[in-house]
Design brief:
With about 230 residues, the protein is of the alpha/beta class. The chain contains 6 helices and 13 strands. The strands form 3 sheets. Strands 1, 4, 5, 6, 8, 9, 10, 11 and 12 form a 9-stranded mixed β-sheet that branches. Strands 2-3 form a two-stranded antiparallel sheet. β2 and β3 form a beta hairpin.
Amino acid sequence: MKAMIFAAGRGERMRPLTDHCPKPLLEVRGRPLIVWHILNLVRAGINDIVINHAHLGHMIEEALGDGSQFGARITYSAEGTALETAGGIAKARHLLGDQPFVAIAADVYCPHFDFEQVKETLEDYDMWGNPHAHDKRDVAWLYLVKNPAHHPKGDFALNSFSIANEGEPRYTFSGIGVYRPEIFDAITPGQSAPLAPILREYASRGQVGGEIYRGDWTDVGTPERLAQLNG
């Protein structure tokens, strides 16, 4: 399995910290945010990592290199101007291959997330070895978290490991998901496109699975949240 880490965002809410440092390189407890993910991926045996970037992207490449210092193989997808999440995936599609991949937002801090669990989420066969119908199988698997104070209404409901657009209780998407690459084929590489509409469309068809992650998780979206983590 390959991984993609989203590192192209400008980090407007983190200014002035991100005026001269890309958000993924901001440090939490002595380590850049993005490095926490890289080390956890490698620990789970996921060594092939694609990283997209835009704002100050050269600094990310200079800091991480080819990934060998972490035991990883890193390739980069330079966007120039950030293309949003689905647009970033579409541009990097040729680097990701044809198998399901895990994708992570670089600006979330989840130091104990075990990426071993993502490897068996999107199964092609049922427990008896029969192939799932192409139009019935899950095309994405999302990890949800308890709603943080800054996002009290959440994003999705969860019904027996099936993501739903409506319902209660609601949870927040963690920024960690597993995707079948073909769901991005309709996006022209270089086109800007958000991820949420795609997920909601497939969720309405019952083709998005998920579960709740109960470990430490923080959306490092403001200088105040960063300071609290480092306090």
